[in-house]
């Protein structure tokens, strides 16, 4: 029995509030337990220099935490004058993960920037950001589709993410902060709606882990991600249909 | 008649949600029309180097906007590697304003850091931040008082702020973004509950203004600030009593 | 009686030496008491990116203090690697103030950069910079006019600035450093030759101030600024005529 | 058949030259095919602030590439003024991996800094750095042991790393640069001498991967890492005995 | 005949105004032709970390140019966020040169910082800075001596500097900006009052130079530096005696 | 007799390994005693902005030391976020020196970047970098010539460099680190194959030096540089002929 009463294979309650921000092309407030992240998607009619002239779009992400997202105040990276390694690692991960389910050529020479701002942290902020950013991105890209700016719908699969870990020999799904700081093994997994892996990042700094533990963690992650994706489907409504349609079309190529 | 139907001397609806964040010692979500700011207050048992050894506390503020707080995405200052002039100017203003109603010696060698993060902007973000930060600060300092860490209550007055401006010869209270961008004269005013001025910052870059216009703007500002302060009193409840008590004690010295 | 023997409504001696620098298009050394600032105006045949293609010019300012302008050596901002908040605030103020009396469309797609370098500080460096920069700007723009590069003279009013403050219930004009550090209320005012306000920045961090005090301070400021502007007129000589002519023409539109 | 004639499960030739640098406490030049990395280990009698007073040591790493390590010259991060996200990610990975086989309390309040400088890159620079840095670290720590500065030998297992990937449905071991740029799936794995996982980082940005592919990649990685570790054992000679002894002692606790 | 009518072995007019700044412990305005530099000396009762606890003092320098010191406006290094290579090179040179004539142990654990700010540039700004900074330093250190804070006078020789160069096969003394930009060979020389070399920095980027040219340049430099030093002696008055006395004492050790 | 048994006028053993790096257009590993530097030359078909449109090329250099090139680990400049003054000074020197023997117009609108990375330091790293960089540059430019991209061979002389210094009244050639730290006078000299000076940088911070000492040092430097240049000729083989041919052609103009 976990400190908050959950079973080992149970995620915390998930709540996704769409269109949380009046300015952004797509936005959500995603809450996974006490972890709360505002994800906004911005569409811009230009791509970064290294993508110019290829007729393809780009998807990228930025991640930040408000100073009191955490129990102890963390100094702003803007005040320090540079991004920390953890931030860079996370925003590279989010961008890479989202790009795996978008056909960049179908997006045209546009970029989608996902801003993931953690307003309250309680473990799993990077995986929650990925799950939320997917929804914000889908809403924004759907507006492009509605405005007839796209030749075909570019998102070809759902994408969710959870963390898993091992505490006292026990594999657990969706660690909160308290559990995360006790875990000897910590793994973040990103998977598609069709059950394929996009990212597997497991770390056993405290204690190397066996193949058997790895297998257990991957199973739990799959379970948790399916549950995240069904929340996405609910909140996306008719947009979910378009994703499934695009997936179907892509699989026939 | 203004675009959103308000009278010239009317503020937008104000909503202050206290204890919005589970980690911070004090916190609010303040909404003034579509402008939304999360204000958190952090208490730390240390003061900056220039205040050390004086037996006094310090109050300071930081201000930031999420990238899509605005209609067009603004680049993160953390990514640019430095704070812009506007940000610095605003956070210096917020800190200075809050310190004007706190007796730093009554705080002890502690610092209160107010983080004002604009999650959606529609004009008046700096004045809204001041009004909200005051409440977050009062909640946090009240916890110190409750924990018997203070010899007397250090907040000796309420503090509210609004913007005022002149559009087509007409003085208006609490400009939204649309009005702000049309205003020839723009003024931010901070006042105490007892009706004294803490900051008056009027700018007529587009068009220098007369003494008569200045007088009209100051009257409107006073009106608006009284209304902000009555919202603060409501949400602070019993803490309001403590502020009034401290004000009374201070006035007798 | 003030420490240097002045009356409450008296400024320090003002001396403006024009053409102090052989390279700049316009330059002055301005001395207000022991405060000494070199102001140079640079004309460049280009505007910043955000102004491009509008057929209008731009006026901007930079402000800095030599390390030993002050009693205690202050570290160079170039060595610290960033501009401080105070510097940014001041240079934004100077640029904004100067733009209020320049018709940017009459300047053509050119920029005027005012560099205000304080070589000795004794209070009022920002207001002295504004008063001096106005003269340097007028000299530089007059050269453009002499060279027949302008369709009409773009400066439509004089512009002066002083600081005022309250010490022991007494409102005083043009504070020196010593007075400034004792003042409970501190206000910087910028006005035009025709007596309109361009900037009013009053701060009562130490002690909020009443409407009556505000009124007294504004009167003193007006007096002081008139005296600054008559110094400008003397040093500008025939250029003063051109400004008056442009003011007259502008008022008829 | 691969472009350089290797089998799918074959690594490139590995050469580890110990004591390559006369100043460092431990050093190697490691060559894996055309990838060449200088790894130096520096022992300092102090720990970073967050580790102070715990009686434990610290192991950390820095990673860099010479500008012409790569086919196209890459700009120095010192000239750009900041570390890129890739560099930060890699050096965090190297440090974390090395710490997993060191008992920090047995190190005493000392730090070991591993500098991994890629002088020529041809794929797998981060995994090669880990394999080489382990040897440099072992040499440096062994000197501490020889000097009787340690109560027990702190390295309790070997540590090696390889990259694996999928090209055209085929899982391959130890990708060179050419293969790496064609791979749809890319995975870096770090394992101990006793066959446990320390890091598993798999990315399918180009194409999500199945559980079956994951399993194949993990098997190849295990094979490759065993071969890296036997090179380490050869070059470490008698120091290998000490590691095995420490491993044995640790397993009995 | 040179453009300004000087002979090849003639310096421009030199004017040194002592005590130019009311705050600094020592200060001059030095003018060599149209090159004008404000040099201030700051005494602080502390030394940099690498000098602590040795009972010795430190002398260091900073160098900067106002934006319009030059014909074309140069961007502030504070705005660019970093010091350029030329600035660093010059300030290292100034500090090193001044230290060569100061007995650091006689200074006590104090530092002298020389700020050299070029307010107008016309060639030779670094050599003019050295000549001027020497005087500012002597005035400041003399105050320490007058205040009985020193066991003996620490400055043991005069120090002057000039530039020399070759234009069209002709060696010239004290190049102005115009000459400097035409010179094929450019040399900065620093010498003591007793005729020894402290720095010789000759560069023939445009055209390598012969031993014979080098010899001619060194002779001219010696001549020019003697003339700079006699200006220093005049302006220093009685302080010159103290330097000569210290030189005499030092030579007997 | 020197600590390593050399005579006063003897350099350490020199070894230049050409084509040390498989990616760079030109490269060497140069070893002078225990000082080891990797020099790579990169050809790019563009010039920096200030050289554009002149039909001429550019040669520039960057210099860095690996953290453990030195006896005590030095912090990376990339981690500190800026280049130090010493690095800037050295890389400016290397670039300037190399340009003195290249006819930039014969290079076409191309740039050659020399990266000098010190992998082990034992004195003379800047002079060794110049000697090695010359060879790397010659190899790279020769490839351009071989590819018929140049109208004539642009390198018109050899270029070598050594350090010299005075220890206990004795002038010594090619100081190692130990000697360098004891030297009262320290001089770096760069000369061409035809015996002309390109750079003379002598510093007597510890002790000003006489004209006689200067003369002795220059003689030793000439001797040492001749020996460096004969090593260059050996390793360059047939490319040496091309340089001699270009020198001959240039001397006839």
From TrEMBL, chains A, B, C, D, E, F:
<protein>
    <recommendedName>
        <fullName>Ribonuclease PH</fullName>
        <ecNumber>2.7.7.56</ecNumber>
    </recommendedName>
</protein>
<dbReference type="Pfam" id="PF01138">
    <property type="entry name" value="RNase_PH"/>
</dbReference>
<dbReference type="InterPro" id="IPR018336">
    <property type="entry name" value="RNase_PH_CS"/>
</dbReference>
<keyword id="KW-0698">rRNA processing</keyword>
<dbReference type="GO" id="GO:0016075">
    <property type="term" value="P:rRNA catabolic process"/>
</dbReference>
<comment type="function">
    <text>Phosphorolytic 3'-5' exoribonuclease that plays an important role in tRNA 3'-end maturation. Removes nucleotide residues following the 3'-CCA terminus of tRNAs; can also add nucleotides to the ends of RNA molecules by using nucleoside diphosphates as substrates, but this may not be physiologically important. Probably plays a role in initiation of 16S rRNA degradation (leading to ribosome degradation) during starvation.</text>
</comment>
<keyword id="KW-0819">tRNA processing</keyword>
<keyword id="KW-0694">RNA-binding</keyword>
<dbReference type="GO" id="GO:0000175">
    <property type="term" value="F:3'-5'-RNA exonuclease activity"/>
</dbReference>
<feature type="binding site">
    <location>
        <position position="86"/>
    </location>
    <ligand>
        <name>phosphate</name>
    </ligand>
</feature>
<dbReference type="GO" id="GO:0009022">
    <property type="term" value="F:tRNA nucleotidyltransferase activity"/>
</dbReference>
<dbReference type="GO" id="GO:0008033">
    <property type="term" value="P:tRNA processing"/>
</dbReference>
<dbReference type="InterPro" id="IPR015847">
    <property type="entry name" value="ExoRNase_PH_dom2"/>
</dbReference>
<keyword id="KW-0808">Transferase</keyword>
<dbReference type="GO" id="GO:0031125">
    <property type="term" value="P:rRNA 3'-end processing"/>
</dbReference>
<dbReference type="InterPro" id="IPR050080">
    <property type="entry name" value="RNase_PH"/>
</dbReference>
<dbReference type="InterPro" id="IPR001247">
    <property type="entry name" value="ExoRNase_PH_dom1"/>
</dbReference>
<dbReference type="InterPro" id="IPR027408">
    <property type="entry name" value="PNPase/RNase_PH_dom_sf"/>
</dbReference>
<dbReference type="InterPro" id="IPR020568">
    <property type="entry name" value="Ribosomal_Su5_D2-typ_SF"/>
</dbReference>
<dbReference type="InterPro" id="IPR002381">
    <property type="entry name" value="RNase_PH_bac-type"/>
</dbReference>
<comment type="subunit">
    <text>Homohexameric ring arranged as a trimer of dimers.</text>
</comment>
<comment type="similarity">
    <text>Belongs to the RNase PH family.</text>
</comment>
<feature type="binding site">
    <location>
        <begin position="124"/>
        <end position="126"/>
    </location>
    <ligand>
        <name>phosphate</name>
    </ligand>
</feature>
<dbReference type="InterPro" id="IPR036345">
    <property type="entry name" value="ExoRNase_PH_dom2_sf"/>
</dbReference>
<keyword id="KW-0548">Nucleotidyltransferase</keyword>
<dbReference type="GO" id="GO:0000049">
    <property type="term" value="F:tRNA binding"/>
</dbReference>
<dbReference type="Pfam" id="PF03725">
    <property type="entry name" value="RNase_PH_C"/>
</dbReference>
<keyword id="KW-0820">tRNA-binding</keyword>
């Amino acid at each position: 029995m976990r400190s908050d009463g959950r079973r080992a294979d149970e995620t915390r309650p998930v709540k996704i509030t769409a269109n949380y921000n009046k300015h952004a092309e797509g936005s959500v407030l995603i809450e996974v337990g006490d972890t709360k992240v505002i994800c906004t998607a911005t569409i811009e009619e230009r791509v970064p220099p290294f993508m110019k002239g290829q007729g393809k779009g780009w998807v990228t992400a930025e991640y930040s935490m408000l100073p009191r997202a955490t129990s102890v105040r963390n100094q702003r990276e803007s005040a320090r004058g540079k991004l920390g390694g953890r931030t860079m690692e996370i925003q590279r991960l989010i961008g890479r993960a989202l790009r795996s389910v978008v056909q960049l050529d179908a997006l045209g020479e546009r970029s989608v920037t996902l801003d993931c701002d953690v307003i309250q942290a309680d473990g799993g902020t990077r995986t929650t950001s990925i799950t939320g950013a997917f929804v914000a991105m889908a809403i924004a890209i759907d507006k492009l589709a509605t405005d007839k700016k796209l030749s075909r719908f570019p998102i070809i699969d759902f994408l969710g993410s959870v963390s898993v870990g091992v505490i006292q020999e026990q594999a657990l799904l969706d660690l909160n902060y308290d559990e995360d700081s006790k875990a000897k093994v910590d793994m973040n997994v990103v998977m598609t709606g069709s059950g394929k892996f996009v990212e597997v990042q497991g770390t056993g700094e405290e204690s190397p882990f066996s193949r058997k533990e790895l297998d257990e963690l991957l199973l739990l992650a799959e379970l948790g991600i399916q549950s995240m994706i069904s929340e996405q489907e609910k909140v996306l409504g008719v947009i979910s249909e378009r994703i499934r349609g695009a997936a179907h079309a892509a699989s026939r190529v």
